Amino acid sequence: MNVNELLSAIQTLNTEDAFRPRLSAEQWRSVTPFLTSHEVRAGELLIKQGDLDHTMYFLGQGTLQVFASGSGAGPQKVAILRAGAVVGEAGLLGDFPRMANVEAMTPCIVWALRGPRLDELAQRLPALALELIRAAGAVAVQRLRANNARQIALA
């Protein structure tokens, strides 16, 4: 998968929590060297609840499910994510344990933006880094509102 396919998926995802940075195609080309592509097998955990990690993932292909393990009768389904979605955005926004598990439902390709690479991007291209953080924050707020409305408590 090339980065143009990822950008197309991001731009065409039509969900309330869609990642919508105000970046031109040229600006995206400047950001993509800071991303790494990874294949995730169906059934594999991408994010484990409780882990400390400073990585946000862009889902290029496939489907992910988000679920939380809690004190209830079993895992609580939080969301199903399609190509173009981001996940793990809270990991870029602070030093918080992961609030939920994220598992590949199908084979996936994800693009990772790790904390140290974001720091490097902020040094070299601060306006682009700021825009990515702003868009990630907007996703986090939208998801928090949706989870509150559905009364899903995430640790």
End-to-end distance: 34 Å
Helix/strand class: alpha+beta
In percent, how helical is the residue content?
A: 25-40%
Outline the low-pLDDT stretches. none
Radius of gyration: 15 Å
Architecture per CATH nomenclature, i.e. the level-2 architecture: Sandwich
Q: Estimate the global geometry from the Cα principal axes.
A: globular
Q: Please work out how many helical segments DSSP would assign.
A: 5
Compute the number of strand runs. Answer: 8
Strand percentage: 25-35%
CATH superfamily: Jelly Rolls
CATH classification, class level? Mainly Beta
Tell me the domain tally: 1
Strand order of the largest sheet: 1-8-3-6
Q: What's the story with the biggest beta sheet? A: 4 strands, antiparallel
Please characterize this protein's 3D structure.
- The protein is an alpha+beta fold and 155 residues long.
- It has a single domain, classed as Jelly Rolls.
- The protein is 35% helix and 25% strand.
- The protein is built from five helices and eight strands.
- The strands form two sheets. A four-stranded antiparallel sheet has the order 1-8-3-6.
- α4 (115-124) crosses α5 (126-149).
- 30% of the residues are buried.
- The model has no long low-confidence stretch (mean pLDDT 91).
Index terms:
155 residues, alpha+beta, Jelly Rolls, 4-stranded antiparallel beta sheet, 35% helix
Question: Short summary of the structure?
Answer:
The protein has helices at residues 3-12, 25-31, 90-93, 115-124, 126-149; strands spanning 36-40, 45-47, 55-61, 64-68, 76-81, 86-87, 101-104, 108-114. The chain has 155 residues and is an alpha+beta fold. It is globular and about 50 Å long.
